[in-house]
Amino acid sequence: IPISDYAFFGIFLPSSPINLILINVLVPPACIRPSVISDLRSGSNEDDLSIKLSEIIFKNNSIYIDMMEGYRVESLYNNWDTLQMLICMYITGEAKGLPLSMMPKESIRSLVQRLKGKHGRFRGNLSGKRVDFSARTVISPDPNMSIDQVVVPVLMAMTLTFPQHVNRYNIQSLRQAVLNGPEVHPGANFVISLDQTGRKFLRFGERENIAAKLRPGDIVERHIADGDIVLFNRQPSLHRISIMAHKVKVMASRTLRFNECVCTPYNADFDGDEMNIHVPQTQEARAEAYHLMGVKNNITTP
């Protein structure tokens, strides 16, 4: 297409139709395509991308030699078609319309397959997060709960903790939590002393001694209890009210229970759905969650 005709096609410089033709192939760094050491035989197994890149380079050199030495056009075209097939396999992992003789024997993990899908780079590694202080289980309806409450099983409550700072108003209740330890709710799992001598695990420590030495400024990682703020989420999180803040109600159940009036924002039903809770770890985070993400502050649709 002459440059003078670009405007008729709605193309304006520096864009050009020539950019639609692939003339270079990107080579990813070695960390993207690591070699795998084989225990069964000597040497290493190269990654699919490395193997395909070597085949592309070999075939590209063959075409260059054919052109320089004046080989037959038929041989040149065959090598050209093979190069096209190799590049398709390298990028997409599939080349449709090939004869059976040219079809690869095994599927490879191409560039596209490493990026797309649930286990790809975006959804599996970049968008997906691994977090602490979270729990997940099946949900059940409970019409006796307030719309901003969620029933948390006591086994979950004894695993999830909140770092409570000791002060003169809560020191007695936190001493009792330390004495209860990890096995009894409401208890505590760890104590961090003000002098930063380390994190004491209460399952094995001398709880009476630790409780007696508790003083303002220490941190007790106590079990979550009634009235604590947690984030409640059902995937897929399609809009902002897929995650809202609820108040905890600890009960001896095995499921997360909440008022069925709150099903709509979560798009939840009770045919086996599972939901997640996340425990904010600072007072500021709890305040933000309660006032900005609380159910009662998000009753009208956004």
From TrEMBL:
Keywords: DNA-directed RNA polymerase, Metal-binding, Nucleotidyltransferase, Nucleus, Transcription, Transferase, Zinc
Cellular component annotations (GO), alphabetically ordered: DNA-directed RNA polymerase complex; nuclear lumen
InterPro entries: RNA_pol_asu, RNA_pol_N, RNA_pol_Rpb1_1, RPC1
GO biological process, one term: DNA-templated transcription
Catalytic activity: RNA(n) + a ribonucleoside 5'-triphosphate = RNA(n+1) + diphosphate
A Gene Ontology molecular function term of the record: DNA-directed RNA polymerase activity
Origin superkingdom: Eukaryota
Residues of the signal peptide: none
EC number of this enzyme: 2.7.7.6
Hydrolase recorded as keyword: no
The UniProt record lists the keyword Transferase: yes
The protein's enzyme class: transferase
Subcellular locations according to the entry: Nucleus
The RNA polymerase N-terminal domain, residue ranges: 18-302
Major subcellular site: nucleus
PANTHER family: DNA-DIRECTED RNA POLYMERASE SUBUNIT BETA' N-TERMINAL SECTION
Family: Belongs to the RNA polymerase beta' chain family.
Stated role: DNA-dependent RNA polymerase catalyzes the transcription of DNA into RNA using the four ribonucleoside triphosphates as substrates.
Protein's recorded name: DNA-directed RNA polymerase subunit
Organism: Myxobolus squamalis
